[in-house]
Structure formats: structure tokens, C-alpha cells
Amino acid sequence: MNMIYFDPLDPILERADFTRELLLYSNREKNHLFIVKEGMEPIVEIGGIPYQCRLVQSTEMGATNSPDAKEEQPLKLNRRRVYLYPIEK
After folding, report:
1. What is the pLDDT of residues 49-82, one digit of tens each?
2. How far apart are CA 37 and CA 19, in angstroms?
3. 86 with 50: CB under 8 angstroms?
4. What is the pTM of this model?
5. To the nearest 10°, the Cα dihedral for 7, 34, 14, 10?
6. How far is CA 88 from CA 3, 43, 85, in A?
7. 3-52: per-residue pLDDT in tens?
8. Distance of alpha carbon 44 from alpha carbon 49, whole angstroms
9. What is the 3-state secondary structure (H, E, C) of the chain?
């Protein structure tokens, strides 16, 4: 069982947002996602495998090549990502 992740299209501020993003993800990926428990850490099943979902804020370092910059400048990219962790039965 592998961990799955995706980038939500819109902000997830409450449980309805999380549910909407999970359904959008399921439609994009054409998988059969079933929401077992809604919430801010929902539990879903994909292909009979249960997953605990978590929204994680990550900061990644990138670089920008602005035409006005004399050299590359570091750029922090804030990204929110949804991780689905398999639940051992």
C-alpha cells in the first residue's frame, strides 16, 4: 500500500471544502473513492483500501529568473497538499 498525494485546486478551510476536493480528485483520477468519514482528517477508501487524509502545508525552495535580477534569487513556495496515508487493517 502506497501513500497518495494531490494538490487541492481551492483552499480547504472546513470539512465541506475537504469533501469537495476529495470528490474533484476522484473525478480527475477516475478512481472509485468512497468517503467513510468526513472531517478535516477524513477517512476514505480507494479500491477497498482505507486511507487517512491529512492536509499538509509545505515550503519548498525554488528560484526566480526575473529579467531585472542580476542573479537567481531564492523563492519560497508555500504549497498545501493532501496526503492519503494507508491505514493498516
Report:
1. 999 999 998 766 555 545 555 565 555 556 789 9
2. 10
3. yes
4. 0.77
5. 30
6. 12, 13, 9
7. 999 999 999 999 999 999 999 999 999 999 999 999 999 999 999 999 99
8. 8
9. CCCEEECCCCCCCCHHHHHHHHHHHHHHHCCCEEEEECCCCCEEEECCEEEEEEEEEEEEEEEECCCCCCCCEEEEEEEEEEEEEECCC
CA pair distance 47, 61, nearest whole angstrom: 35
Q: Which one-letter amino acid corresponds to residue 73?
A: Q
Specify the residue for cell string 468517503. 35
Distance CA 76, CA 5 (A): 21
48 Cβ neighbours under 8 A, 6+ residues apart: none
CB under 8 Å to 10, separation ≥6 — which residues? Answer: 17, 20, 21
Which grid coordinates belong to 84? 492519503
